[in-house]
Amino acid sequence: MSNQARRRSGALLVALALGAVPAAAYAAGEQPELSAPAHEAFKIVSLGDSVSLGYEPGVTRATDIYGYADRLYVNALLHGRAELANYGALGLQSAGLTQLLAGAAQGRKLTADQLQDYSAYDPAAKAQADAVAASAPALRDSLADADLVTLTIGGNDFAALVRDLVGKTDADATASFEKTFDEKLNNYAEQLQANLRTLRSLAPQARIEVADQYSPVSKIVGDALYAQLNASIAKLSAKLDELKTSLAAEGVAVDIVHIGAAFQGKEVQYTHFSPIFGVTDIHPTQAGYESIARAFAAPVWPEYTEVAPSDKAADPAPTVYIKGKLLKTQNKPQLKSNTTFLALSDIAAATGAELQWDNKNKTATFKQNGREVKLTIGAKTIVVGGVKQALNVPAYLQTVGKESKTYVPLAAITQGLDYQVVYQAKLHTAFINS
């Protein structure tokens, strides 16, 4: 990537600088069991380069990010409470990851320059890496509690090789690639092995998954070079499989997630790389991130669910999932002052909460697991466990067909019943779990 292209990418990521951071004994090669007790969140930590961050060219806001980690988070939310901590850093290389993990182990805040050389990047891009580097102590805490750690690293180690092919003849490109690939592969594998040892020590309870690499180059470069590139990807993947076996013998359990094979033949669809149009950005498209998410999800869940975005223009009220099930009702959800309202009978049915209705006082009482939530139509307060709390918008009566339905604020009720409420802006969808 040219310095100018790097500066453009960095400027687009300025909004992400703050958004990036919200030893057990096992048999050799055996990953920890993935389970979360009731009312505890399944905790995911996404770590590595800009692919873990979910970056795409043209992104200007953190809320526009929807990468593989976000998709894993959504799938986790379909199974219960979940949390995601994303420590993906723009431009991070294997050596930079080594420094970041060392800072985490020491509980020491770092700067981007202490990770690696960021002199070729725009200050805005460097600021994003600075935010991640400074969060090294938080990374240590996140890893200590993690159930699942996903890692993408190495793309920036090999990216120069790919970009160097642009504009060269087939023969020259092949010769150039052959000369440097094996050396970089050996260095990469050696650093990755050391980083995975450190990562296992920091995340003793987590299933650790690391992705292999994909090639963004389609057959447009010529059959011979295309075949060589994919042979190299296969060699790298095999090297990581050997690494997994070697680490397992040490009692360091990791999974290798094979994304390279999934991208082969779909490079145009799965990446932004298009040298014909002068696009040298190798990041995944949304389709590419979907494919990566499926690969990471496979060892964790029997099935992967692709959740389609809700059309906010067609329906201002978000789509709602309660305890992993899509809310289907004839009583259309409503949005008032950025607050989602549902018919109280729908909330009771979806949560399984006991509902009592006092018609004289127009008051609804929800009871579940020893918790009680009470609210009255028109009142600007809600009573949770006997304590009054302010409401932005009170409950109200809504005409549905020929009936008058009581609509109540969804988040206020479910949070009062000790549910987790997560709104995914990119999907315009709310996930609610007990």
Folded structure, characterized:
The protein has 434 residues and is of the alpha/beta class. Helices cover 38% and strands 20% of the residues. It is built from 15 helices and 18 strands. The strands form 4 sheets. The chain has a 5-stranded parallel β-sheet, with helices on both faces. It has a 5-stranded antiparallel β-sheet with strand order 10-11-12-13-14, with helices on one face. Strand 6 and strand 7 form a beta hairpin. Helix 8 runs antiparallel to helix 9. The longest helix has 33 residues. It starts with a helix and ends with a strand. It comes from Cohnella hashimotonis. InterPro entries: Cu_amine_oxidase-like_N, Ester_Hydrolysis_Enzymes, GDSL, Mao_N_sf, SGNH_hydro_sf.
Q: What is the compact description of this entry?
A:
This protein starts with a helix and ends with a strand. The chain is an alpha/beta fold and 434 residues long.
User: What is the number of E strands?
Assistant: 18
DSSP helix count? 15
Rounded to an integer, what's the Rg over CA atoms?
25 Å
Task: Return the average pLDDT rounded to an integer.
Answer: 87
Topology, please?
Layout: H1 3-12, E1 42-48, H2 50-53, H3 68-77, E2 82-88, H4 94-106, H5 112-115, H6 123-134, H7 136-145, E3 148-152, H8 155-163, H9 170-202, E4 207-211, H10 223-249, E5 255-257, H11 260-263, H12 267-270, H13 286-297, E6 319-322, E7 325-326, E8 334-336, E9 339-343, H14 344-351, E10 354-358, E11 363-368, E12 371-376, E13 381-384, E14 387-390, E15 396-400, E16 403-409, H15 410-416, E17 420-424, E18 429-433
Helix pairs in contact: 1-6, 3-13, 4-7, 4-9, 8-9, 9-10
